[in-house]
Amino acid sequence: MFLQDADALAATVPDGALLALPPDNSLPSVALARALVRRGAKRLRLLGVPVSGFATDLLIGAGCVAEVETSAVSLGEAGFAPRFTAALKAGAITVRDATCPAIHTMLQAAEKGVPFMPLRGIIGSDILANRPDWQVIQNPFSETEDRIVLLPAKSPDVAAIHGVMADDEGNVWVGRRRELATLAHASRRVLVTVERRVPGSMLEDERLAPGCISATYIEAIAVAERGAHPVALLDEYGFDAAHVTEYARLAKTEAGFREYLDRFVFAPRAQAAE
Amino acid sequence: MSIQPEERLAATLARLILDPAAPPARHIAVGAASPIPAAACWLLRKQGHPVRLSLLHKRSGNPFTEGSRELFDLTGQGRIDLFFLGGGQIDGQANINLVGTGEWPGTGVRFPGSFGSAFMYFMTPRTILFREEHSPRVLVQRVDNVSAPGVSPPGVFRRGTAQALVTGRCVFRFHPDRARFALESVHPGESVQSIRAATGFDFDVADAVPETPDPTDAELALLRGPVCDEMLETYPEFCARVFGRKQAA
């Protein structure tokens, strides 16, 4: 189903939803994050797949977020994420730290429809000590002592992805970023913005089909040109370091962050640019 | 042109990677914020060593076709031989803290987070810990929070741990049997005393500690030429600062 724009997608995301966002190098829908800020979404629980970047900091700064589960939050070369750090310090958000492969594994369990999956490592990390939802068991197949972590399946309420293109049938091309397919398979709803719409079905093209997320998993799509900006989109456009550096400078203070929102999120021209 | 500290560190890391006493390094993965480890790996390649490099976050030359999960699946199988880790804090037992200081989850100074360290440190046959800043606030007696432990008890599967810790002042070798670092060499201008003063944890010292050797002329020529060529796209600022090279417009 094609909707008018990212704001129409954002209108379908309920307050309090568990919203999964890929990191800055892997096709997050920043356009949808901006639309959620405009809609004034509340109490979102964000999941970084497996880490978090610009869109997460933006949503936190705008007061849309109650909780973040992630393996790291950073603005890449622009440094630490200022609104995330401020909200953590102020106790305004709950932070549930994880480690990258654990998040992949929890989504893979959901994708397979099994209640949990094991993962090596982690034992002795304080991450585990702070995750009452993770368990350690003896490997039932080993005759010697072999403790291993069990992770519960995780199904996000909504996944927000920015693809390169969508076809008439609603298939979305994300190239080699195959962890997005796992995310789509694991999520209850998938909302996608894309650079452009193409005719026909990409699944009929053997060269494009392996880079697609099938329409089976996708609830709604909207065209949002430069919808990943200021982060990169594969070979379509690069990371806008100047923009993110400017964001990082402004977002050091609440007032600066508000100025950023006014200029780049709420301004009519910013909406038109999407 | 005088030897830059980064050039010395890259050459030092390259020699550690080739250490014949360590497990072989056929496939090395290098994270995003790691220009000096990346330079060390490229130096090996340009010296003709047949090492496979997976440079994470580099768009061109990215070997993965299954997304970011593939690195962890490869590592889980034991197909990544060597990884680099850093830490906001690193302690004398090679525990690393990427979460933050103070109470969990970093109520003092919050760092970005643990990334894949709680998995990679266990599942890679060897890890080189690398942190340029060598000060008592980074190298601490005991980390405030453990992102990934340096050693594990029996009954916890672990392929390896830290081989060494390389800083802007020295090289420490890690001895997992006694969970302690030993000072292996000091960079020019440093001494055992200056290292002790800058280090929050206790470590072992042999009777004579050598100076970390300079990069050879051949190593410097490779670093400033073909290694820099490979790194310009991903690390333009680093190449300009260290090698004095600007990317063509």
TrEMBL record, chain A:
Gene3D superfamilies: 3.30.30.40, Glutaconate Coenzyme A-transferase (3.40.1080.10). This is CoA synthetase. The lineage of its organism: Bacteria, Pseudomonadati, Pseudomonadota, Alphaproteobacteria, Acetobacterales. GO terms for molecular function: CoA-transferase activity. It comes from the Bacteria. SMART domains: CoA_trans. SUPFAM superfamilies: NagB/RpiA/CoA transferase-like. It holds the Pfam family CoA_trans. Signal peptide: none annotated.
TrEMBL record, chain B:
InterPro entries: CoA_trans_fam_I, NagB/RpiA_transferase-like. It holds the Pfam family CoA_trans. Gene3D superfamilies: Glutaconate Coenzyme A-transferase. SUPFAM superfamilies: NagB/RpiA/CoA transferase-like (SSF100950). One of its GO terms (molecular function) is CoA-transferase activity. PANTHER family: ACETATE COA-TRANSFERASE YDIF, CHOLESTEROL RING-CLEAVING HYDROLASE IPDB SUBUNIT. This is CoA synthetase. It comes from Falsiroseomonas bella.
